[in-house]
Design brief:
Structural class: mainly alpha
Number of strands: 0
Helix content: over 70%
Strand content: under 5%
Radius of gyration: 15 Å
Distance between the termini: 16 Å
Number of helices: 8
Shape: globular
Largest sheet: none
Length: 154
């Protein structure tokens, strides 16, 4: 289970569009987070700003490997562990995804086509499913961790 080559290509192209102003993107993301009722302790805008390059690298790496969940799963789980230290709840995972999509919409403008939006929503849904399964033992249609473990033991 992963994204199609076409979706991965347009996701990476959209990341390339926001890369020159990624600092501004992280500010917008932070503003979007403030509009949601997060229960977790979220870093300040200054902390996010200071880590914007690392956030960009994490995003790019994750999208680059979405076609092979085995390679990206430990990376997402690592970030899930970091988020859990801030008191992340299952509902917060959804709100983070919503804020991320909203920030993308703002920064990509007319480039945020329905096709690109669908690709991002799918990728964010995968991320949320992995995080929720890993941290909260919630199950979507297919438990990704179990599927990956089965693939690794085969």
């Amino acid at each position: 289970m992963g994204v199609s080559a076409h979706h991965q290509k347009i996701l990476l192209q959209s990341i390339a569009i926001i890369k020159p102003n990624f600092h501004c993107f992280t500010v917008t993301f932070h503003v979007q987070l403030k509009r949601h009722a997060l229960t977790m302790q979220w870093p300040s805008s200054q902390e996010i700003s200071e880590k914007s390059y690392l956030l960009y690298c994490s995003l790019e790496r994750t999208v680059t490997h979405l076609d092979c969940l085995l390679s990206v799963l430990p990376f997402i789980q690592h970030h899930a562990n970091n988020l859990s230290k801030s008191g992340l709840t299952c509902q917060d995972v959804d709100l983070l995804g919503d804020a991320f999509i909203a920030a993308l919409k703002i920064h990509l403008g007319k480039e945020f086509t329905p096709n690109l939006e669908n690709a991002w929503r799918y990728a964010v849904r995968m991320f949320k499913s992995i995080v929720k399964s890993y941290l909260f033992n919630t199950n979507n249609i297919v438990a990704i961790n179990k599927s990956v473990q089965q693939q690794m033991s085969s």
